[in-house]
TrEMBL record:
GO molecular function, one term: microtubule motor activity
The organism's place on the tree of life at top rank: Eukaryota
Lineage: Eukaryota, Viridiplantae, Streptophyta, Embryophyta, Marchantiophyta
Domain Kinesin motor: start-end pairs: 5-335
InterPro entries: Kinesin-like_fam, Kinesin_motor_CS, Kinesin_motor_dom, Kinesin_motor_dom_sf, P-loop_NTPase
A Pfam match: Kinesin
GO terms for biological process, alphabetical: microtubule-based movement
Name under which the protein is recorded: Kinesin-like protein
Length: 479
């Protein structure tokens, strides 16, 4: 098991009013914020306090391709290698989370991490047909503290609030549709179908503001491709577009949108609490406090390789929001996960191996029989013919026909069959005796009451019968 630190990148949204307080050092991967402070009611002294936040990388004016290469590519490669991966975007409303994750559909070059990840996974599937890669996708949203499937097979199903459960140490959503997809186009078709069902609403800072946290997941199964050591890796890539935190007086919302904003802020503060508890090494981490933290449990501390992309709006007007996002990022930066390659035996290959082993064992037995001078013995299932020949022999044996004083044993399958046939004979004999007793005027009760003492047709238990049979058989057995 490899412990790996969560990688944290910062993406600054381009602005026509860039903040004079924000300074990026690209070489050192740090951002410095010079904070204005008031002293003793006097005039504000600019830049008398500085905060420096280190990141794994800071992206300021890079294109979408560079963002994918810098932040997401390695996680997608790790998922193809059998690890679970999660990429999350986090930040205030309108800061560019959806732009980073989904992209802008107006221009192909503006496509985001999701379409690029899908493209990379299917490129691998096409390039390595021997790996037999299979892909399923799911798409859900956490809206107002409920989990909803964005890919309902029937439209009615969209209203069902799903349950997140822990299964084998990993979080699973019971009843979530997982669509099998063969091509990049099919996967994107489902992604766009889910996008249509997402909850969005306009407000002062964003015309298409996400009102829910969305998770698009790709489940990838891949065969090792080595004939002798064939196994399957089974991994998943979670692409998470979190809803943005918002200050209600800035977004100027009311009614449903206000209620949504309050629930978004609440779930994000639960996320901060969970991250704080993990960072402090507290014994109890409150993952169960909200649907979002339950969903992100693996990503924050479990079997997963995780990347967080913090999006920020680098304008003076939003300095408070930016500082609080940067602080959150610093806590996440120190979280460690325990990612392992998720291997399992290939069921089809295991079956093929057993068939081969059985065939080899049969050959071994045949060779041993030949060397010890035994007649050729079949170890296959008994045929109907063999069965009726055995039945006849048992009847002759029980009837004490001349010359039939033993039943030769050939193999274990035959022994099992003999027990069944003896039982069959015994049941038939018992039926005949009951009939005889009835004909002589006694009912079955008479038979049952006296059979143990007077008519000794069934001494001891069935097991004892079987043992006796074995004893008899053993005397003559010629293994
Ligand atoms: N880096 C960027 N380059 C160009 N345009 C951007 C960038 N980031 C964001 N935008 C634009 O800003 C607007 C808001 O961005 P986006 O919807 O991605 O914000 P968001 O963080 O997802 O907001 P919300 O939390 O409200 O959903 C969009 O029109 C988007 O195209």
């Amino acid at each position: 098991m490899g412990h790996c630190r969560v990688k944290v990148h910062l993406r600054l949204r381009p602005s026509c009013r860039p903040s004079t307080a924000i300074h990026v050092d690209h070489a050192a991967h740090t951002i410095r914020i010079d904070v204005l402070k008031q002293h003793g009611g006097g005039p504000p002294k600019p830049y008398n306090d500085q905060m420096v936040f280190p990141f794994d990388s800071i992206i300021q004016s890079s294109c979408q391709e560079a963002v994918f290469e810098q932040c997401a590519r390695q996680v997608v490669e790790d998922v193809l290698g059998g690890y679970n991966g999660t990429i999350l975007t986090y930040g205030q409303t309108g800061s560019g989370k959806t732009f980073t994750m989904t992209g802008d559909t107006k221009a192909y070059a503006h496509r985001g991490i999701v379409p690029r990840a899908v493209e990379r996974i299917f490129a691998e599937k096409v390039a390595k047909p021997e790996a037999g890669i299979t892909v399923h996708v799911s798409y859900l949203e956490v809206y107002n503290e409920g989990i909803y499937d964005l890919l309902p097979q029937r439209r009615l199903a969209s209203a069902v609030n799903l349950v997140a459960m822990e299964d084998n140490g990993l979080i699973e959503i019971k009843g979530l549709n997982k669509m099998h997809v063969n091509t990049e186009e099919e996967a994107m078709k489902y992604f766009f179908e889910g996008e249509r069902h997402r909850s969005v609403a306009p407000h002062a800072l964003n015309q298409m503001s996400s009102r829910s946290h969305c998770v698009f997941t790709m489940f990838v199964e891949r065969h090792s491709g080595l004939r002798t050591l064939q196994e399957v890796t089974s991994s998943k890539l979670n692409l998470v577009d979190l809803a943005g935190s918002e200050r209600l007086k800035r977004t100027e919302v009311g009614g449903t949108t206000k209620k949504e904003a309050m629930l978004i802020n609440k779930s994000l503060s639960f996320l901060e609490q969970a991250v704080f508890a993990l960072r402090q090494g507290l014994g109890h981490v409150p993952f169960r406090q909200s649907r979002l933290t339950t969903l992100l449990k693996d990503a924050l501390g479990g079997n997963c390789k995780t990347v967080l992309i913090v999006c920020a709006w680098a304008e003076d007007f939003f300095l408070d929001e930016t500082i609080s996002a940067l602080r959150f990022a610093q806590r996440v930066k120190y979280l460690k996960t325990s990612a392992v390659i998720n291997k399992k035996a290939d069921a089809a290959n295991t079956q093929r191996r057993y068939v081969r082993e059985i065939s080899e064992l049969k050959q071994e037995l045949a060779l041993r029989d030949a060397l010890t001078g035994r007649p050729s013995i079949s170890y296959d299932e008994l045929t109907e013919e063999t069965r009726s020949a055995l039945r006849e022999r048992i009847q002759a044996f029980l009837a004490e026909e001349a010359g039939i004083d033993s039943i030769p044993i050939e193999n274990f399958k035959q022994v099992k069959e003999l027990f069944c046939l003896f039982k069959e004979a015994q049941v038939s004999l018992r039926g005949e005796l009951e009939k005889l007793l009835r004909d002589y005027g006694g009912g079955p009760d008479t038979f049952l009451n006296h059979s143990q003492h007077d008519v000794d047709i069934n001494p001891g238990s069935e097991e004892a019968d079987d043992e006796e049979c074995v004893g008899e058989l053993d005397k003559e057995a010629c293994f």
